[in-house]
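so my prof wants the structure for this chain in the tokens format not the other one, which i didnt know existed until like an hour ago. anyway here's the sequence
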Amino acid sequence: MGKTVRHAARATLQLGFAAFMAFGTIIFITVLLITATGALVVIGIWLVPETVLLIRRIAGAKRQRTALWTGTPIPEAYLPLTGPLRERLRTSVRDPGTLADLTWMVAHYAYGFLLAPALLLWPVGLAVDGVRCGLLHRTPRVLPLIGRLADLDARWSTALLKPGPRAQLAERVEELTVTRAGAIAAHGAELRRIERDLHDGTQARLVSLSMRIGLARRAYDQDPEAARKLLADAQDQAEEALTELRHVVRGIHPPILTDRGLAGAVRALAAGSGLDVTVRVDGLEDGTEPGARAPAAVEAAAYFVVAEALTNAAKHSGAAQASVHLLREPAGLRVTVRDTGRGGAHQAGGSGLLGMQRRVAALDGTFALTSPLGGPTVIDVELPCVW
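here's what i got, hopefully its the right format
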């Protein structure tokens, strides 16, 4: 009986909060009328996006309260209200989440007052269930109905506040727009880096090589010894130019990935990082079997994440040890890099983390950074792919 009473009391508090919100949303009608009047006379058109933001907060509070009762969070799918007034106004009107929130608010005017029947059930329940449990030793029947009323409120709220297909599609389009912008920025930066490496390094050496060969041709008849020296220097210049070209090619797609697979390439990175790095590989040990390797773009992204993370750990964190975990999952590849450094890393720190995040986002992956002061720093990346 005591457990039933406690559950009914908790359900009553849940319904009480719902009734309080329903009463507040009725008062909110005044705000809606003021906003509608201001929009009609144009002067108060700026109130529309602000009112939509307020509605989102009210709906968000209901989502949180419902999630506390059910244990299952209700996702949100809103388009961001940013930019000038015209853009925010257009987004407010076109966002499917705005209509969904208004629909919930209207429905909540009715079912939000389920507290009333719950309060009526309390005296009846205490009397009937008290006799059933205390004298007849049977299970309670009336007080559990209060919990069912709270469940009913939660089911209706979940159905009305859960994003619909249109809202999810709009949010996905917005997410892909941001991801595409980041991918374009990362691609542009990569092209500029390649152009700079070719212009400042390889091109300069090839120009010097051409000049030395020209001088050697002129001096060949008159001073063969000087011509041989110039040709020897030209050969050295050619070898240096080839070395720099290999370096540029590795920056585009490391050949070791093609030759040894991701697991072997990461072990080579760990061996040359200067840290005590432990590499753990699950599901990627043998890259020669069909379907055992991820697509080339996914492998390259994972490789560069590990390379950048180990470089940051060696240069900035002061770590002596690090670990890398490569895990093959049914839906993709997971990469976790952990170091024992001082922590405090963040995307705005200029340590390449933003570039890593953009590279992962370009493949529709997720990038998570945990780096409290004092360490450790953990980079967790998930890259979706089909095996």
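also thought this was worth mentioning. The first helix runs from residue 2 to 40.
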